[in-house]
Design brief:
Layout (H helix, E strand, L loop, with lengths): L1 H5 L5 H29 L3 H19 L10 H17 L9 H28 L5 H8 L7 H7 L5 H28 L3 H32 L6 H17 L4 H13 L15 H32 L3 H4 L2 H26 L4 H5 L5 H8 L12 H21 L4 H7 L4 H12 L7
């Protein structure tokens, strides 16, 4: 009788069961979205935002009151940011043979960020009369390629194109956030900002080196059954402490990830006396699997919550649609001119792979109220994200098949192989 009473409608256990049920269904749907995106080439982020909007409409139609989750959106976004950058940095291999690829991707990420921010800021200042700092702070989020969206969707590209996207989007995230922090640190006192930024950068590298040694030792030596979550917690802790003291915290995460993923550099040194690199790399692979699953959860809930609080009516306002279309077209046009004229990369799928996503939203939410401008609002940000994701989906559709499929199809259809080879030949020698 007692147990049956606890499950009556309106009781706390009754609501708890429904909340748990809803969370389980959401996680399963997110997982199915992730799997389906690999075959349909529809970015999972579009489906997650769509799910959030659907939950909003269901809530409004049924009158079911969902607690206000908007305040936790920046928290989830920050956790996702740390995990995404760490995961991306673990993919970056600093090899001599890839030096030109690294140079090209860094150049692409940096120059395209500068061009988008500069041109967009000039429009906002000269035409709409906004202050330069407001214009720059609002344009930086729109100038960053989202690695959270680009990397998972790059599975449909050739191996060389996928490698380019992984490096470019990772560097775009890092450079964009560092530029955003730099502007906030300096604001109008640019000289003070430069000095502080350089000092902060040096301190961050020192802290990152010490943190890397400590966490790498912990990763390798700790034998307790709970290891990887604690390490991830320490990374987030150090990141937050760096943010509180106005240090470029993302640089710390980047250095930590690069040090772990490129441990072979010190494999033949005196350090080999203290670390068994075979076991260390096995531990690192296990850590990456845990990190990938945590990133999946955080990213899924972030975009679902973001979609839930998106104004459906505001998305369809003509002014917002026109603004978002102009921004998206400008981003892709600048990218096309840079790729074709400067890098000499004649690959349309790469041109279309410029999605905006989590970091765009997170930085937009971090803009101080005094620097917000009406032309760049939440709905415009949402539309730009959706439009760039659709462009990326188009890039996936028109891209050649993956190398594995080409090899398997070569026995029956040599034309498929020719398509892949043609795409590869369109890339410059340094990328090949």
């Amino acid at each position: 009788m007692i147990l049956s009473g606890l499950s009556e409608p309106g009781s706390v256990p009754f609501m708890t069961n429904y909340i748990i049920l809803a969370l389980c269904v959401i996680i399963i749907l997110s997982y199915l979205f992730d799997i389906s995106s690999r075959y349909s080439r529809v970015p999972g982020i579009i489906l997650l935002i769509g799910l959030g909007i659907a939950l909003q409409l269901i809530s409004l139609s049924t009158g079911f009151d969902i607690p206000n989750l908007k305040p936790i959106l920046p928290v989830i976004g920050t956790l996702g940011l740390v995990m995404i950058v760490l995961d991306a940095s673990l993919d970056l291999k600093l090899e001599k043979k890839k030096s030109r690829v690294l140079i090209n991707t860094v150049l692409s990420a940096l120059v395209l960020l500068i061009l988008v921010v500069t041109i967009g800021s000039l429009v906002l200042v000269k035409i709409f009369g906004h202050t330069p700092i407001s214009a720059v702070l609002n344009m930086i989020p729109l100038g960053i390629i989202s690695s959270a969206a680009a990397i998972p969707s790059a599975e449909g590209l050739s191996s060389k194109e996928k490698e380019f996207i992984v490096y470019e989007s990772s560097f775009s995230d890092i450079l964009g956030i560092m530029a955003f922090d730099f502007i906030l640190l300096g604001q109008s006192e640019m000289n003070l900002g430069v000095g502080n930024f350089l000092i902060a950068g040096f301190l961050t590298i020192v802290i990152a080196a010490v943190t890397t040694v400590g966490l790498a030792w912990l990763l390798h030596k700790a034998n307790y059954h709970v290891n990887y979550v604690i390490i991830m917690t320490f990374v987030v802790l150090v990141y937050v402490l760096a943010e509180l003291y106005h240090l470029p915290a993302l640089l710390l995460v980047l250095v930590f990830g690069l040090a772990l993923s490129n441990n072979r550099i010190v494999e033949n040194t005196f350090i080999s006396r203290y670390i068994e690199f075979g076991k260390f790399n096995r531990d690192l692979n296990a850590f990456r699997r845990i990190l990938g699953e945590l990133t999946f959860l955080v990213r899924s809930f972030f975009f679902i919550i973001f979609g839930y609080y998106t104004s459906v009516e505001g998305v369809f306002y003509p002014e917002n649609l026109i603004t978002a279309f102009i921004i998206t077209a400008g981003i892709l046009l600048i990218r096309w001119l840079f790729f074709y004229c400067i890098l000499r990369i004649k690959s349309l799928p790469l041109v279309l792979f410029a999605p905006r996503g989590l970091i765009t939203i997170l930085l937009f939410l971090s803009i101080p109220a005094a620097y917000m401008i009406p032309e760049i609002n939440t709905e415009v940000i949402t539309l730009v994200i959706l439009m760039t994701l659709l462009a990326m989906m188009l890039g996936n559709i028109i891209s050649p098949r993956k190398a594995k499929r080409v090899v398997s199809a070569a026995k029956t259809d040599p034309q498929e192989t020719d398509i892949e080879n043609q795409a590869h030949n369109n890339l410059p020698e340094e990328i090949k």
